[in-house]
Structure formats: structure tokens, C-alpha cells
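User: quick one - fold this with adenosine monophosphate bound?
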Amino acid sequence: MSKNLKLIFLGAPGAGKGTQSDIVAEKYGIPTISTGNMIREAIKNNTEMGLAAKSYTEKGALVPDEVVIGIIAERLAKDDCQNGFILDGFPRTVPQAEALDKMGVDINCVVSIEVEDDKIVERMGGRRVCPCGASYHTVYKPSAKGEFCDKCGEKLIIRKDDAPEVVKSRLVIYHEQTEPLKEFYGKKGVLTLVQGQEEVQDTTALTLKAIEDAIA
Ligand code: AMP
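Assistant: Sure. C-alpha cells for the protein plus adenosine monophosphate:
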């Protein structure tokens, strides 16, 4: 019998973590926990956490560790995480990864989707998102309903933090603060690097192989 999948997707903003998370979540019947989506939802609903996070998120900066660690601890305690889960966008710093360890969360697979910076900047220009959390790309993953979400029918929008200048500063943060996690999880023997491909399904094939090997 294979183990419950406790998966982290690493990768630059726009590398395809959200897209691959949705596919893997469906295949394994486990939830995707996206801190970015949870933060955007909190901002939309004007919650206390949303108000605290807004100024960071809009300029592409990271929300303070203690805030996101709190969100994750609460979410992982829910029943639907019992049989496994996928973390998309968390951890993003070494202290966040250490906090997961302290919570006793035993991650058994980390997939880092590798995409060159130039390609990221080009791709982000085409990203469209829905307030429901669904994410599209005008070329690589268009909605069947054009400018509207094919899951809920809402009009798709461009994220403020997908503006080219903001993307560039998010990439700097990624290299400085998030990329060291490759070493962190490499040392634990759970890391696989997957080269992001032009076609979503080709990246998925590489990702599923890494997962199967990890939980066999
Ligand atoms: P994402 O949708 O994953 O690109 O996240 C969007 C924004 O939410 C980021 O640019 C940060 O401002 C914030 N955010 C999401 N996850 C984290 C995290 N793990 N640590 C700090 N900030 C985060």
C-alpha cells in the first residue's frame, strides 16, 4: 500500500504550481492548500488577517511568517487533511519550513517546478484568475468560456501582483528566500526537480512520476 501523499510544490510565481496542484488533488482526492488563495479570499472579505496582508501582497512582498504559519496550522488541523494534502505556495521561507517540522508535519514529497526567469515574466503577462480561485492562461490554459471562468462563470481578472515590475521583484524574493528550500528538502531526501514544460500535460507526467516514486 502506498503512503498518504503530503506534497509541497515549490517553484517561482507562475511556474505552474497551482495548475499542477489542481490536477494532483483531483487524481489523489486530497485538498490543495494555497496560502495565496486563502490570503486573497481574506482580503476580499475584509477580515482582520486580510487587512494585515493586503499591503504586502499587493506590492509582491511576502506576508510575515507568523501570519501564514498561523493560517496553515489551522488549515492542516481540519479533517480533510487526514489522508494527505498538497501545499501550494507554502512554505516560502526556511522559518516556514521549520515551523512545519515543529508541527510534526511529515512531508514525503517536494516537487520543484523549474522555469527560467525570462519565461516566467513572459508567462505572467497571460495569467488570468477568477475570484473563486481558478487560474488560467490566455495561451497555455485558456478558459473554455473565454474571459469568464469555466467553473463558476465569473469574469476573469488580472492579479495586481502580476504586473511586470511586481513580477520581477517577486522573482528576486523567490531566489533569495524560497529557493533555499531546495537545499532544505534536498537534505531530507524528499526533493525532485521537475523541468516545467511548454505543455501542461508534459509537466504533469513528470510530476506524477516523482510523486509515485516518493510514496511507493
Ligand atoms: P501566490 O498566489 O502563491 O503567488 O501568493 C500571492 C501572495 O500572497 C504572495 O506574493 C505573498 O504576498 C502572499 N503569500 C502567499 N503565500 C505566502 C507565504 N507562504 N508566505 C508569505 N506570503 C505568502
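One thing worth noting: The first strand starts at residue 5 and ends at 11.
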